[in-house]
Amino acid sequence: MSVKDDIPAIFLSQVSPRGLEAIQKTKDFVNDYCIPADEIYFQQISEDPATRWKKIPPIMETLKAKARELGLWNMFLSKHYKEGPQYTNLEYGLMARYLGRAHTAPEATNTAAPDTGNMELLAKYGSPYHKQRYLQPLLDGKIRSAFLMTEKGTSSSNALNISTGAKKNANGNYVLDGVKWFASGAGDPRCAVWLVMCKTDDDKKNPYKNHTVLVIDAKKALASGKAKLIRPLHVIGFDDAPHGHCEISFHNYEVPSDEMPNVVLAGVGRGFELIQSRLGPGRIHHCMRAIGTGEMALLIVAHRANHRMIFGKPMKDREGFLTKFGQSRIDINRCLLLVLNAAHKIDISNAKAAQKEIAMAKIETPRTISDILDWGIQVFGAEGVSQDTPLARMYALNRTLRIADGPDEAHLAQLARNEAKKFPEVDIFFDKVAAQRTKL
Questions:
Q1: Were both Cys, which of 144, 150, 355, 371 would link to 188 (CB 3.0–4.6 Å)?
Q2: CATH tag, 3-112
Q3: What's the Rg (C-alpha) of the chain?
Q4: CATH for 273-406?
Q5: What is the per-residue burial (b if ≥16 Cβ within 10 Å, else e) of 146-158?
């Protein structure tokens, strides 16, 4: 089926012929290569603790080579970046919808988090050194990266609460102290660079200038013994090897003198600005893939319903099942429209101008898809929570999106506060209605 049939009519005219071709290629690549490769990928992950975090499943390089051959590479870098293929956020959103159907698809096309956000930061704010040393290898898929922001024991979704310190010593070098955790991607043996959110000042009058993003050579830091990868944290029982979500500690880690001239990204005190820049499009990327996850779940559920007999009648013919399936389709389409609208708003303005649209998509999409995945698990019964279907893993990954890049509550509260600022306009509206009524 042509992807034209999958694109909401209101957005179809906004997709270029080149974009449409790439969307179709993405759909075909995911269906023909990535979905069949997922089971092979998980089989190739070592069960031996000694090698589990040291080897990458070989199937991934096969997929990456095929993706590059098809020109499906770094599609997330929108028209705002000269380093990318120049698709719009809307066009990439429609591609990511298919990428979310397979676990292997994002990395296969070099569009996996957290590398996407890190590449955007390095492309937008990086010095020539940063671009040559880290951005180009990331663009080529030769290394991986991690973003170290979250901290234990504090509400670190608010960056102002981050306390990992970076202070200059007598030699003029930054010295890092603190603990980061849930550093996604830090377990990967190819992870070569950390972007670390640190507190570099304590200005009470201007707290938004107290934090800085440092670009740290991960291999060098770990080799020093003063930075330690403590453990991979589990996400609802999954360790996500060899990617991982890691706890990392810094204990008097002194950035080497030869790294110091290039350790600060963009400038001291610009950390808050940088993470806001990074998280805007990133939130939409997650939602785009979540749409695909939900659609894949419906395919799995439909396949189950075709072959499951309930008291002598196929599940697919049960009215209760069909009603829930139909509602799930409506729910996914609702989220799809929210996400694509936010992506288009970024295209025609910027992420800041699309703050409301991004927030609505970020709140609604993960929780809606989580409900659909939960129902899918229920349809399968005990098998649904086991390793014999992908639903449990899909649920675990999607459930974290309601926390990652800011929890539902934070986005909803901010959205509500901004909407409440418009309340005085309501009185003006009804005053005008009353005045106009007297004239009729």
A1: 144
A2: 1.10.540.10
A3: 23
A4: 1.20.140.10
A5: bbbbbbeeeebbe
